[in-house]
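Quick one - first record:
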Amino acid sequence: MFKITNYGKDVVLKVLFVTLAIDAAAFIVNIAEVKIILLGLSLFLLVFTLYFFRDPVRKLPAGVTPDTIISPADGKVVLIEKIANNYPGFFEGNELTQVSVFLSPLNVHVNCYPVSGTLKYFNYIKGNYIVAFSHKSSEKNERSEIGIETKKGKKILFKQIAGFVARRIVVDLRLNSTVKAGEKFGMIKFGSRVDMLVPMDTEIKVKIGDKVTAGISEIARFR
């Protein structure tokens, strides 16, 4: 069943009005070539918008444990590296491992929680709009930062990062609430990136270039 995410229904409605206006213009125009171009544009806008805001049903794979970290986004792994711990109030230690996933405009953009636990950290930063595949976007762009602590005391922080095209981050959460792995909580509208920060002893299960699926692909495992 094709489903549109609630986070995008306002945009779909606006695009529908735009396409109806284009269709009306096409109906008025008597030049066949112009009529075809307008109708083609209208169809493209509507189909692309519906496709972009699709919200497929996802089920956690078998074998998921409390230590399993599931991808919060669809896309391609573009970075795995050690970084300095800039969140001493949340993480212990001097370094963290960062795994970054780039989302193209053709990927599903609805995000889900990578682990089950309690929401312990949230921060929204109004930043710039560097292209999302640039690693500078992690610290320069508009982003939300979300931290979860599992029942075992393991912690992960992940970021929704806006890109050059993406201009709106949607997030629906409440601090200190209990969340479940695979549960949807928001999206980034049009081309974007998600960074995951985990302790250094976390076992990474992906490599650069791997394609991952939100709510299904295993990114890492706590030790």
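second record:
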Amino acid sequence: MKRTLLILMMVFLAMMVVVGCGTENGEDEASTMVLATTTSTYDSGLLDELLPVFEEEHNIEVDVISVGTGQAIETGERGDCDIILVHARELEDQFVADGYGTQRHDVMYNDFVILGPEGDPAGIYDSADITEALENIVEHAEEEVRFLSRGDGSGTHVKEQNLWELAGVDDHSDREWYDSLGQGMGDTLVATNEMQGYALADRGTYLSMEDNLPNLEIVFEGDDELANPYGIIPVNPEEHAAVKHEEAKLMVEFFTSDKAQEIIGEFGIDEYGEPLFFPGAN
């Protein structure tokens, strides 16, 4: 009996030594964190370039929730993620002001574009500004011109609503030519392509899908109102004590670092001839 106990004790001590050696050699089990972000950053493939570098540097595994900006912000408000990366500045500022986020940090930017069918039946290509472009869509709507909206509370949808308001078109959602789909950017562009309609899209998603959208082209771009900045915000641990705030701070440091900013600035050039996003950290 004593011999059996002695053997068991020796086995236990040997296991403890192995575990201890693993810890000393830097083989600790990776911690995990949750990032809630937009479909544009996820579907473009940008996170596939950035997150493995972050995970390797910090031994942190990142679970990604890819939804529209509105849903990502709601995820942060519930404390179901540790950090958000989104693109709707007004909603981002409100998220921080309401105490759900600690501080917003600029990460990158691109811009929105209006896509339409070949031949541009609404005649918006030569519009002086985005207001005139939308007014032209309304004017030609009776000629079976359609506008397709994400309608999902995303950053793109929020921007689109603001642009209609800027153009003084308050009843657009009630018009027969206006289709609110409640879908992500990719599905919205596929539907717009099939219907040969018009839609607002972020440039990065369009470029990444362009080969599959033969009926669409950029028909309006370049207005200052179409700027599309992205911000990263850690969830406030004072609001949700269980969030991984230290990990979130490390992610902020990484996304705003020279290394990450260089990756962002080069992403897409080889495949599309231009970057899908531009570095924006201050």
